[in-house]
Structure formats: structure tokens, C-alpha cells
Please model this.
Amino acid sequence: MSRHLISIDDLDRAGIERILDLARSFAEVSGREIKKVPALKGRTIVNLFYEASTRTSSSFELAAKRLSADVVNIRSAGSSVDKGESLKDTVRTLSAYDPAAIVIRSPWAGAAQQITGWTDAAVVNAGDGKHEHPTQALLDVFTLTQALGGLEGLRIWIVGDVLHSRVARSNILAFQRMGATVTVCGPPTLIPRGIESLGCAAQDTLANLGEADVVYVLRLQQERMQEAYVPTLREYAQRYQVNRARLREGQIVMHPGPVNRGVELSGEVIDSDAALIDAQVKSGVAVRMAVLYELLVGAPVLQVVA
Amino acid sequence: MSRHLISIDDLDRAGIERILDLARSFAEVSGREIKKVPALKGRTIVNLFYEASTRTSSSFELAAKRLSADVVNIRSAGSSVDKGESLKDTVRTLSAYDPAAIVIRSPWAGAAQQITGWTDAAVVNAGDGKHEHPTQALLDVFTLTQALGGLEGLRIWIVGDVLHSRVARSNILAFQRMGATVTVCGPPTLIPRGIESLGCAAQDTLANLGEADVVYVLRLQQERMQEAYVPTLREYAQRYQVNRARLREGQIVMHPGPVNRGVELSGEVIDSDAALIDAQVKSGVAVRMAVLYELLVGAPVLQVVA
Amino acid sequence: MSRHLISIDDLDRAGIERILDLARSFAEVSGREIKKVPALKGRTIVNLFYEASTRTSSSFELAAKRLSADVVNIRSAGSSVDKGESLKDTVRTLSAYDPAAIVIRSPWAGAAQQITGWTDAAVVNAGDGKHEHPTQALLDVFTLTQALGGLEGLRIWIVGDVLHSRVARSNILAFQRMGATVTVCGPPTLIPRGIESLGCAAQDTLANLGEADVVYVLRLQQERMQEAYVPTLREYAQRYQVNRARLREGQIVMHPGPVNRGVELSGEVIDSDAALIDAQVKSGVAVRMAVLYELLVGAPVLQVVA
Model:
């Protein structure tokens, strides 16, 4: 693993497996009454969020606190105009606090990579525009590994707005690296051209969904309607909603959250045993603890969490 | 006490007295230089606030920190449309962090009760719509107990907008349970019909205020004017403002804050020795430590705070 | 040093030097892997910010956390109407938490001084309107001392909107107290009348900038344009921008941040070795640790940080 985690491409299969091993230890810590290890005591983690994200930011915050770090949360409305120079000045300012890591969520693809040039801190990409969201992919791989033992040979369908999704991008890479085959499915307007070059199959209906072992449903951003990528929520749901009628026995359903109930996913599926959505959230803390630990300590975990 | 604190009705008199005993110990902790005990070290408390509330949220945050818990603050603009399903998904997401307790403030009556079905965490109601605000009632009982030794036989007047007040609802229950008699007083439009069924007397002028040992003044929400419950601030103040001219020697004045100075309460009363308003705030931290401790540890406090 | 830090005038030269000594120790702590000392363990610090300020508030927050204090951040939109009574009630409420210190940032000159009458906590002025910002001045003195050994005999130019700047006010006092001579420079509309009574020279062009050892550039608030203090950003930059063409070899450049790149300071100067801007931010944490420590502990630092 490089000094930073910007893309799933920073990790080969062995690297991902190391994160999974660490995450397993930290999931055990999070299951204890005292959910805390002293690994990062006295070190500073900055969470720099240019987009609202209760879910991801609280997950990173909790991961850092369970490692005993001091956390500084910086939220910024931000705007694309501010992008260039002011991001640089913000990062240089925060770097003067000598943080061990900067976790950055940004609407600009490439922001996480860019700031590595301006800081000595380890940089963790918590989502950069439509580019990548690598800790989401890692927590999804971890969740599947916990549920099924591994991803080798799994057939995974990713359903929805693949075109605009950083989650899709990171997850395609990670799922394939761990031995799964990936099919993307959605309206042709929401499937990037040339997706086959990533080694995925593409489908524009759910007709063959039965072949999937795992159905990974993406959130439909409401603004896509205004941009005319999809006609109406109702029509989208009619064609692409994953619901009980379209699933077969034994299929697993995942979603990165937050879900639009009754749009991309039906309420009864969300609440069924088929859905691993809560397990994904739980995995998030353990995996983010693992990533921070791997980047900042990198020593055998057993010495630390024992 | 049940696993949760949703309503004052979750506590019988013995339960309230146990909280008061614990709060006494924790008030002593908060008076030390090192205002901290390790009781909840490594445990996670989520503060989920769907309404802005600097006062209540900082009080709960500090209570949790003084018990050494890790605190995650989630603030949401929220809207009544979001209410149904999305509250469920939010609570399930947060529950995946395996918090020891979720403290919830919500504009929807019944929200705190409802989420107990979706989480293994202890739920503490920090105010749900016009329903209840039980920790406010407990801190008021604690404040009166500290000041006067107990509530048995006290005559307490609650003055103002009783109709819309969760504080009034919880405090009527708690004051009576501890042996006080309660009279509510306000414009007829702001007194709920049938309030006598709760065992209260009702008055529509302050003429007999002299009979009260304790005058508990409610905040007048500015929006009541627009809704035509009261004519003007000026007229409301003329008839119902608690001020020096209307008080007699020896009466105690309380208010849950924040006060509209010069509306429901005159500045000189706020700043006088008759007012216990600062003591109420101070009690808030101790009582919330006690509630969290009782729900999450429930062991003899002396072993822990010694 | 008094019990509070409201103005640079609360410190004589010996007092400033004591803060510098403490800051030196704490800068060493911030350079360690474990950036933490137990000096304020179990004590509560309230950060009360009536103005948005990521930079100053995160610096104080981190300083308090590195001293092991529990921090409560209160942010308020606030408005000048709220000023009088409600500031009093807010401070009394927060004081009921028995905080060791209240750090206050406010748009009202005099707010920090005023609240000392309403609380037993030590009050630290983190900027009050156009009045003072003493920790900024102290961190600037510390930065210069680290870079140059001391300020005795230094010639410092302060360039820009001196009229509206609390930084200018505090820095003039602090720089002079430490033995420097200060010249202020800017458009006549932005230089206060009678500034000479503070012992400064005044200039309205950068023609003689070469005589300065240190060029301290102030932020140009965008709203000054609307108020017609300066014609246009472009014209301001033409006359008063500090850039490479106007600097000579060996001059040091400082700025309290955040910088308007290309307005009061050119990008190439910001990014050059002449600029101490990042060092100023780094100094901020150490100096604020020192101020909190001096006010709240006041014992020989070596006993604590050893």
C-alpha cells in the first residue's frame, strides 16, 4: 500500500487482504464493550468534508476515536470556484497542525490525489467527485467476505446510475481484484460508454438478474431527473427497482446508502434478511480503522489490539 | 426504570429518587477540578438532533464526555416529510455503530418511542415534539431538591404556553409524582382542555400567584403570535409576565431556557436570587450523567465515582 | 498576566516572554508523535464562536485537546440584535457547566471584556469585532522569534486595511512591546486617523517598503469594496499588492490568513521561502496551548510536559 489511499488501484490483492485481516481484528474491537485501542493516541486526524455526508464522516470520526486519535472536523460549503488555490491554502493550513492523516471528501474528481502534493500527512480519499470512493469498496468487500467467505467466482450485478457513481468505479475494481465477475445494469444513459474495457458486462434490463449472486444497488441521485438522464422516478422504479418480485431465493442485496426507499430499492427488500445494508455500515468503521492503522502504524495488529 | 427513558412515566417515585441520588454524586464530580469518571470509557453515545438546541445538546454531550464516552453528534435539518421511513434508516445506520445509547431530539411526538423498535441501544428522549422532555423534568426536580430538600407538599405554578409545551407535560407528571401539587396558568387558548384530568388546577390570571411556592415559567415561542394564540408580545407580557411586582418574598422562579427577557420573565427577576435558572443548567449535566449511567451501567455509583 | 486574555495590554514584556517560553515547550510537544500532555485532563473548555472561523476555532480546539481538555464547540449565527441581554444569558448558561475557560470570537468590540463579568471561567479573546485578537499577535511574535531570534530593533511594516483590523491593533501593540518599530501602510481611507499616537509611522505607498525587515500583510475583506473604502480589487492590487517585484532579498512576509491570493499578496510570494504563513499557523496551536496553560495552570511547564 502506498502512503495514501486514493484509489483502489493503490492496493493489489495482497494489500486488500491485509486490510481485511486488520478489519477483522477491529470488528472484534467494535464488538467489545470498550470499543477502543490506544493505537493512535495523541495523534491528530483531520476530516475535511467539502460535501455534506453524515454517514461517511461519522464513520471516519468514530474509526479515528476508537483508535484514540484526536479528531478535527472541518466542514466547508465550498464551491467549484474555490477549488484551485484555496484548496491548496486550506490543506497547507491544516498540515501546519501536523496531522497524521487528512481524510478528504470533495466534489472534485482528483482532489484527494492533488492534495498529496501539499501535505506530509497520509491522505485518505473519502470520495472525490465521480472518481473513486475506495473505503466504500473495501467495506463492501469486507462485508461480502464476512457473509460468504470470499468473492472468488461470485457474480455481482451493480444496478443503477453507474455513470455518475464513484462507488461503482471503486467497487468494480475491488470486486474484480478479489475474483468476482461484475455486470453493470441500468438505463443506457447512465452506463458509461466503453465500460466493457473495465472487464464488465453491461445490461440494460433486469431480465437476467437471476444470474447474480449479489445485487449491488446504487443510489439514484434526485438531480438526475432534472438533468433528463431518467424520465421520472416512477418510470425508473418500474424498470430498475430491485424488489422482491425481481429477486430469487438466496440472492444478496447491498446498497451504499442512504437509500431512496421505494425508488431504487423496495422497502420490503431493505427490511429483509437478503439485505446486508446494516452490515455494510458496521463494516465501515472496522475497515476505516484498518485503513488508518495500515497507513499510520503498519505494524502487526495483534501487538496493538491484544 | 425501563431500558429507555422516553417519558417520566418510565420512572416510579423510587426510580426518580435513584436518579436523584446518582445525580448528587455526579454533581460532586462536576464540582471537582477533574470532572471525569471512567464509567463509559470506550463506549459510544450518539446525539441525534433533528432540532437546533445548543443548550440541550451541549449538556448531553458534556454529560457523556464526563463519563468518558466517545460522542458522535448528528445534526439534521430534517423535515416532517422525512419522518417515516428515513428516520428508520438513519437509526438503523447509527445502530450499526453499536452505540450504548442514542439521545434523540425530534419535532415529532412519539419519535423517541418509535426508534426503540429499530435499535439495541438505550434510547433517551431529549424532547419529542409537544410530547415529553423527561430529562428536563428530572433536572428540575433535582434542582428543587437541592434548593429546598424535596418537593413533598410544594405548590408549583407552571405559567405560560402549557398547550404546546413538552416541558409542561413532563414536569406536571414529575412534580406530582414527587408530592407537589401543580397549578397551570396562562391564556385559555394556551391551556389544554381537560388539563384537570391530570390532577392540576387551572388559572387564567396571575391574581393568585402568591399561593405558589415555586413559579415555573415557560418560554413563549415567537411563532405562537403568528398562529394567533396570543395577540401581541406586549399584551401577553402585560397579563402573564412574571416580574417583581407579581412575586412575593420567598418565591422561587424557574425557567427551562432560553428566556425571552422582558416577555415571559422580567430581566430583574432573571438576575435576582429568586431565580434558579443557572442552577437548572448546572443540574442538567449531573442529571444526564445519572440517566446515562443508570441506563448503561446500573451498578452502585459509589464503586465507580470513588 | 491577569486571569483573562482580552488585550495585548494584559501582558507586559515579561508576560509575553513567559508565553513564548511555554509555547516553545508546547511546540516541542506538537512535534512529537504523541502530541498530548495531561495538563487539563477532565477540565472543560468552551469555544463560543459568533463568527465563522475554521482556522481560529480549529486551532483553539486542537490546543485544548492536546492539553487533554474536554471541548464543547458552540457556534451561533448571532446577530447584533441578540447582542445585549442574550449574550449574557448564553454566557451564564455555559458558565453553569463550570468550564475552566471560555474562548470567545464575536463581531462586537468589547464582547470578551464584557463577559468576564458574567462568568468565573477564564476568558480568552479570540477576536472581538475591530478591537483585538491577542492570540494572533502572540503567535506572530512567537513565529518571528523562532525565525529571527527576537524582535528587538526589527522594522515591521503592516500593509493593508489597518482601519478595520483587530489583527493590526493587537500586533502593533505586541510588536512594539517586544522592541520592534512599526510602520503602517495602506490607502488613506484605510489608515485610522491619529495612528501616530500609537507610536507608528504611516505611509500611503509601498515606495519605501525596502526598509522593512518584515512585511505583515493584512487580509482585504471583500465587503470593503461595497463600502467604497477601496475602488476595485484590481486597483487595490496595483497599488498595494505585496509581490516579488516590490520585495527585496531577505525580507520576511507574514499574513494572518486566509489569504486572498492575487489580491493583497501574490501567489508566488505565498509559495516562496520568504513567507512564514504556514509557520504562523503551526505556532498558533503552540501559543494557544501556552495561553490556556498559563491562565489555567500557571505552574512551571517543565513539571508538566516532562
